[in-house]
Amino acid sequence: MDAPRLGLVGRSGARAAAWDLSPDLRAPGRARELTRGELAAWRIADQSDIDEVVLMVDELVANAVVHGKGPIHLCLLLEGHLLRGEITDESFEPPPEPRTEREFDAEDGRGLLLVAALAADSGCRTESHGKTVWFTRVLSGLAS
To answer: What's the CA gap between 20 and 42, in Å, rounded?
Structure first.
């Protein structure tokens, strides 16, 4: 069900890419692959920026698969050095607040903490068709 890449470049030089993903266990891997490819096409220079954005996308898409409903929409927006990632699904239920205290051997519950730690900002908004969980990251720079 993966929709083709929708690459856009605005007048201000802003760039965007978006994909629709099937809500199955392959979605996080596909989202990692698409995100890494797009960041390379946008010539993101810092490997730690790339790795950390890919990790945030992976965590949020995995949450959408496990806790969301319906197709998953992944959108990346780049304006200057500010990257915004948005993951939308058809559930109106917001993600749970990340818990700061977890059992040592817990198998889940760390994804939103990772996003909060790696992002400049993050949040969730409810819309008429579901919810969008988003993050922003200020990138170190673009390759020339």
So the answer is: 20
Average pLDDT over residues 85-106: 78
Which of 126, 120, 117 minimizes the C-alpha distance to 59?
117
Cα–Cα distance list, 74 to 11, 18, 49, 64 (Å): 22, 5, 18, 10
CB atoms within 10 A of CB 122: 20
pLDDT in tens, 16-62: 999 999 999 999 999 999 999 999 999 999 999 999 999 999 999 99
Cα 49 vs. chain centroid, distance in angstroms? 13
Has residue 1 got a pLDDT over 60? no
Q: List domains and CATH numbers for the chain.
A: 8-138 (3.30.565.10)
Contact 31, 21 (CB under 8 A): yes
- Tell me how far apart the 2 most distant CA atoms of the chain are, in Å: 49
Whole-structure pTM value: 0.86
Q: Can you tell me the distance from the alpha carbon of 140 to that of 52, in angstroms, rounded to the nearest whole number?
A: 12
Q: Are 20 and 71 in contact (CB under 8 A)?
A: yes
